[in-house]
Amino acid sequence: MEIFVGNLPLALRKWELQEIFEKYGVVSSATVVIDYDTKQSKGYGFVKMPDRLQGLDAIASLHGREIDGVPLMVNETKFQRDEGRESSGRPEKPAPLPKGKFSNDRYDKSGGKKASASRKPDGGSTSFGKKNTFRKK
């Protein structure tokens, strides 16, 4: 079970967070989230407890408990990662777009008429390559 712990004192380290939760059962990991730029705590963290009953007991006991004058906010995380692999919360493959529902009208500058093969006003081809305009004689 993964537990969210908010309102952590900024000086609290992950080993201290782990010690707080070990009073209620086995803790597999404890993490205090650190700001990348300032290298300081963001004031929240996560604790993983393998036994759900011990986790619920820890939540009930620690929610609202004051540490350094700040009441903790302890809840079960709403988002659960798949065990064994890290996830960013996004699906692995994006959902396919429905066919026929979207058009390229916003790219068509011909006023609703079918676009010609060339979009250049001079009738030249649409090429992304750079043409050599300077030739040696």
Account of the 3D structure:
GO terms for molecular function: mRNA binding. It comes from Persicitalea jodogahamensis. Residues 78-93, 102-111 have a biased composition (Basic and acidic residues). Keywords: RNA-binding. This protein has 137 residues and is an alpha+beta fold. The chain has helices spanning 14-22, 52-62, and strands spanning 2-6, 29-34, 41-48, 66-67, 70-71, 73-76. The chain has a 4-stranded antiparallel beta sheet with strand order 2-3-1-6, covered by helices on one side. It is elongated. The termini are far apart.
Summarize the structure.
Helices cover 15% and strands 20% of the residues. The chain is α+β, with helices and mostly antiparallel strands.
Distance between the termini: 77 Å
* Rg computed from alpha carbons, rounded to a whole number of angstroms: 29 Å
Strand order of the largest sheet: 2-3-1-6
Considering DSSP H and I runs of 4 or more, what fraction of the residues is helical? 10-25%
Largest sheet: 4 strands, antiparallel
- Given the helix and strand composition, which structural class is it? alpha+beta
How many helices? The count is 2
Following the backbone from N to C, one meets helices and strands in this order, namely EHEEHEEE
How many β-strands, per DSSP? 6
Average residue pLDDT: 78
Tell me, briefly, the overall form.
elongated
Question: Approximately what portion of the residues adopt beta-strand conformation?
Answer: 15-25%
Given as residue ranges, the uncertain stretches (5+ residues, pLDDT < 50) are none
Keywords: RNA-binding
InterPro entries: Euk_RNA-bind_prot, Nucleotide-bd_a/b_plait_sf, RBD_domain_sf, RRM_dom
Protein name: RRM domain-containing protein
Organism: Persicitalea jodogahamensis
